[in-house]
Amino acid sequence: MRKSILITGCSSGIGRDAALGLQRRGWRVFASCRKEADCQELRDQGFESPRIDYADPDSIRSGLAQVLEATGGRLDALFNNGAYAVPGAVEDLPREALAELFQTNVFGVHDLTRQVIPVMRAQGHGRIVNCSSILGFIVAPWRGAYNASKHALEGLTDTLRIEMRDTPIRIITLEPGPVTSRIRQNSVPHFERWIDWENAPRAEQYRTRLRKRLYDERGPDRFELPASAVTEKLWRALEDPAPRARYYVTTPTYVFGLLKRLLPTAWLDWILAKG
């Protein structure tokens, strides 16, 4: 019997590549998306694609129910991947922007995970892989909302991993650095909705720094890897007999993982402030 996995956020980027990569390796992939149109596109490509929007609890319940109906009540793995960003200085982030982002990046992930755990307990095995980020253990300016959500996700994931040590369910974190995706382009509508940058104390910095990064056409970031680099680490997290607690992806993740352990906070702040 083929192993089954539910992957969220499969409309593009990491999720789409993971779905394609695991399907090629023989997994039965349930590739979910937030929008029905994206789900239909995946169905046309031969995927089973339930609609799951982390901000919509009903879609989480119904999407998982579709998966379990198709598999006879079993699920070998869950890859929580869906997330988005609201760029902007922390002092300019409205409470409502943070609340809405956390509904997707943290609370929805938690909701789906809690619903999957009883399935894995009942079948006697399972792996839950959460896609965090290098920004789950360091921070970068202008990314406060995303930084905070990934730090929160890592706190929940690390706690769950320790609590589940006495079960056959393995909890794993992926921490990509710069990876090719549409997260920057997808963040623009959220920036325009929530950030009143023209009236902000840092209006000139928005104009000369952040807006150029968001709107100007540009090539890959330094050290950027394709989404397939994450798929390779996901494959290892799913197939390693004794999976690691976390898997780094990209050179910057390894570098900053080391620097965070070695450098005083003031020195690390000086480096991060340049980003």
TrEMBL record:
InterPro entries: NAD(P)-bd_dom_sf (IPR036291), Sc_DH/Rdtase_CS (IPR020904), SDR_fam (IPR002347)
Gene3D superfamilies: NAD(P)-binding Rossmann-like Domain
GO molecular function ontology, one term from the record: oxidoreductase activity
Keywords, sorted A to Z: Oxidoreductase
Source superkingdom: Bacteria
Family label: Belongs to the short-chain dehydrogenases/reductases (SDR) family.
Protein's UniProt name: Short-chain dehydrogenase
Species whose genome carries this gene: Marinovum algicola
Classification lineage: Bacteria, Pseudomonadati, Pseudomonadota, Alphaproteobacteria, Rhodobacterales
